[in-house]
Amino acid sequence: MKTFIKILLLFFLIPSALFATMYLSLGFLVSLHSTKPEKADVIVVLGGDNGPRIEKGIKLYKAGYAKNIVLTGIDSRYYSPSRPNWRERRMLEAGVPKKAITVDIWSETSWEEAENTADLMDKKGWNSALVVSDPPHMLRLYKTWKQSFEGSSKRYILVATKPKWWHPLFWWRDPFSKQFVLNEIKKNIYYMLAYY
């Protein structure tokens, strides 16, 4: 009987406990690199959401963290400076001057957002950026922006939104949060193979 219990512990309970611990910690892993904002040259508000990133960018701008904003993830096929998309309109409605907003219509992926922003920062003479996105996006952003800024004096600070659906320990309870985390794990693996 003791042998059976040892085998049960060794081959079932211990691996199950390890798997459960790893699964539950995924929320902490993907959101680990978010930090508090600091003064910077530009606030980069990444595309791909329905408003919290824009609202965070507005708050950072109004709090004086930077005088410039870059909006990414705006499809060039549907964008015209004379007809701003909803993200740019929201910024303008909140009192951000049009001259402070740069719209990136070329980036379609997180990798392109980092690369294109690095190029734009060179052109504008900006050395530091606050990068705004959702908590589960932080691990991939950390690796991507680190790679894009490698070999330069530019620096970036990742600033997460605070969505109601997010909790780093109980991420799996909310369907949207769960899907976001699991997608980020897949995307991190893909980025590791394709870019890093």
UniProtKB/TrEMBL annotation:
Q: Which domain of life is it from?
A: Bacteria
According to its UniProt entry, one GO biological process term is: Gram-negative-bacterium-type cell wall biogenesis
Show the InterPro entries listed in the entry: Cell_Envelope_Assoc, DUF218, Rossmann-like_a/b/a_fold
Task: Tell me the ranges covered by the DUF218 domain, including all copies.
Answer: 41-160
**Which GO cellular component terms, listed alphabetically, does the Swiss-Prot or TrEMBL entry include?**
plasma membrane
Q: Which residues form a coiled coil?
A: none
The record's section on Pfam families has:
DUF218
PANTHER family, per this entry? ENVELOPE BIOGENESIS FACTOR ELYC (PTHR30336:SF4), INNER MEMBRANE PROTEIN, PROBABLE PERMEASE (PTHR30336)
Q: What is this protein called?
A: YdcF family protein
